[in-house]
Amino acid sequence: MLTPEQLRSRLIDSKLASAETLQGCTASELDEIELTLNRVLPNVYKDVMSILGHRAGQFMSDIDFVFPQLLLLRERAEAAMKQYNSALPENTFVFATRYGEQFFFFYLDNNQDPAVFRWYDDAPEKFTRVSNSFSEFIEAQLVEQESTMQD
Question: Among 71, 90, 128, 145, which residue has the least CB neighbours within 10 Å?
Fold first, then answer.
């Protein structure tokens, strides 16, 4: 699991971001998310968002995940899923969307590094586990994009 400092360094070293293009959420903004959810967010999620919660350079540039827009993601996911008679479990947090056709979420079950699931409109009847932990999800995104930058 990357520390926030390691994540920042890798983003900058790989040229996916610069110090100027990284802007994290403040503690009060993270508190606002928790108040909106009426749930406590996993520590690893808060650590990542403290580095890139507002801006992340080119990292995950095809995914909507930034604050405050992320507060609307569950509503968007539910609207998309409703078209397919699908629904999110109540105790989940939608943390990202890709093009409005894919939504990424984790369960809010006190796990500090929860598994990540995806709903995709190509297979609307199921949720697919895409990583065993949120930190693994971020690492996979980082590795994939670092390799793209080297090509």
Answer: 90
